[in-house]
Amino acid sequence: MTPPAPTDSGRRALLRASAACALALPALRAPAQAPAPAPTPPAPTPWRNWSGLHSASPRLRATPGSEAEVAALLREHPALPVRCVGAGHSFTPLVPTEGMLVSLDRMSGVTVLPGSEPLARVQAGTRLSVVSRQLDQANLALRVLPDIDLQSLAGAIATGTHGTGATLPAMHADVVGLRLVTARGEVLECSEQQRPELLAAARVSLGCLGVVTQATVRVVDAFQLRRRVWIEPTEAMLANAEQLARQHRNFEFYWLPFTGHCAGIAHDPAPGTDVLMPPAADEDVLRDLRRLRDTLGHVPALRRWVAGQILRRTPAEEARNRSWRLLSTHRPTRFNETEYHLPREAGLACLREVIAALESRNEVFFPLEFRFVAPDDAWLSPFHQQPSCSIAVHAAADEPHGYLVDAIGAILRRHGGRPHWGKLHGLRAAQLAPLYPRWKDFLELRASLDPQGRFLNAHLREVFGVTPA
Ligand SMILES: Cc1cc2nc3c(=O)[nH]c(=O)nc-3n(C[C@H](O)[C@H](O)[C@H](O)COP(=O)(O)OP(=O)(O)OC[C@H]3O[C@@H](n4cnc5c(N)ncnc54)[C@H](O)[C@@H]3O)c2cc1C
Most CB atoms closer than 10 Å: which of 102, 191, 276, 435? Predict the structure, then answer.
């Protein structure tokens, strides 16, 4: 059926209607208001370190999943400064950047390499606890571990992270090969055979030679340890410390302020596989020491007497387990920390001065840690060609910590100490250079790999004495 032909008046009405439609159409096609702006990408989440002392708002936070992605990122953003972050457990502002913050959390895993020497290839973002677990499944272990095992492998070696043991060097000494992506996005490989000078520099790099993507690590057969923890008067502990360090695989002690006592911790190889794990008492001790400070801090003699009465009766404690389950522990209470590594022969004399300085401040309650570390050859290793004692002093994260850097730092420096790169210190290039025989070599290599200083932030410019371009 055909529709009826429109009349003249009908035609005019139709024309008006179609004209109105034509006018209305653009309005139907596009809304009357201004075009919607393109969605802005969400601001990257700010970053904060473990103790809460440092924060940063990088323009870009990247989590590459492969070495190729790391290289692409560096090439795609040539104008952005870059810093890497591991677990954020450093106390010094090594990580903060306003540019690109790169985390290798997605690059995790361990491959045991075939061959006569036990070696493992470890992805740089792998947390130490994961390294230990995966090695354990292959009946292998890391030779050395620090107090905690939450750090990433690359983050741990970048600052010279260490454990304790007069014959045991820091973790980076077991790194026999590295792969890193430079500021230009090039991949470099180094080992004891290939570019050995780069390996010596990159073992402890403070993250400023490039993004480390993987490390080849010398490992050992899995082993069982026996741990003994005991309380001893401070004078006796100091008198016996050198001998205990020679006697045990791992020996360290904690000085407990305003108590007249120390806690010794020794680990030695043990036969068998039996497990004895008493509940950890560290947090209880810390809480008790803080309470004692809060209630009796203004009467040091009474504080010392009460603490002495309790500690004298504390029995020694024994534990047995796989090495990695005993060597590292948990630290739920947040703190800030300084640590210096002293020539071994200077350690105990320096400790006496530090103790006197700390006991002139009634507010101090955190235990001080004293450890032993064997030398190695990495250019910026704080143990470079120097058997060392380490003195670590802590302050609760919610309490002042300035005296760690000023008063305590001054004593540690006077005894020839080199600061832990990841722990609070106030040293700048002019003070650091004389402490490191290969300082100039490191600076030249850094400048050749990264002439624009992409991998430097404000803190590192001061450490290396590099002025902004
Ligand atoms: C509770 C606690 C206990 C600790 N115990 C010990 C101890 O027993 N012994 C000891 O020596 N230290 C100890 N530390 C210090 C800690 O081991 C070091 O500061 C370590 O560097 C932290 O590792 P991370 O993965 O958190 O690295 P981050 O702090 O995140 O970074 C450290 C450095 O590594 C660089 N980095 C990270 N990933 C890469 C990468 N892929 N490529 C290149 N550079 C990279 C960063 O840029 C930065 O310069 C402790 C710290 C805390 C908070």
Answer: 102
Which residue is it, tokens 């780069």?
Answer: 198
Whether ligand 1 lies within 6 angstroms of the CB of 419 is answered as no
Distance 151 CA to ligand 1 centre (A): 6
CA pair distance 48, 415, nearest whole angstrom? 33
The pLDDT of residue 43 is 72
The alpha carbon of 159 and the centre of ligand 1 are apart by a number of angstroms equal to 6
Q: Is ligand 1 within 6 A of the CB of residue 96?
A: no
What CATH number should be reported for the domain holding residue 174? Answer: 3.30.465.10
- Are 342 and 204 found together in one domain? no
Q: Residue 161: what pLDDT?
A: 98
Q: Is 289 in the pocket of ligand 1 (CB under 6 A)?
A: no
Q: Is the pLDDT of residue 5 over 70?
A: no
Query: Does 295 share its domain with 326?
Result: yes
> What CATH number is associated with residue 350?
3.40.462.10
Of 403, 261, 252, 238, the C-alpha closest to 337 is 403
Which of 194, 222, 250 is where one domain is finished? 222
Residues 63-70: contacts with CB under 8 Å, at least 24 apart: 63/102, 63/103, 63/104, 63/105, 63/106, 64/102, 64/104, 64/106, 64/107, 65/106, 65/107, 66/107, 67/107, 67/179, 67/181, 67/187, 67/213, 67/214, 70/102, 70/104, 70/181, 70/211, 70/213
Cα distance between residue 96 and residue 117, in whole Å: 39
List the single range of 24-28, 178-182, 218-222, 461-465 with lowest mean pLDDT.
24-28
Residue type for position 46: P
Can you tell me which residue has the tokens 């108590």? 259
Whole-angstrom distance, CA of residue 235 vs CA of residue 213: 47
* C-alpha separations of 173 from 168, 375, 378 in Å: 9, 9, 7
**CB of 50 closer than 6 angstroms to any ligand 1 atom:** yes
pTM value is 0.91
User: Cβ distance 416 to 382 under 8 Å?
Assistant: no
| Contact yes or no for 109/133 (Cβ under 8 A) | no
Are the C-beta atoms of residues 198 and 105 closer than 8 Å to each other?
A: no
Residues 278 and 189 occupy one common structural domain: no
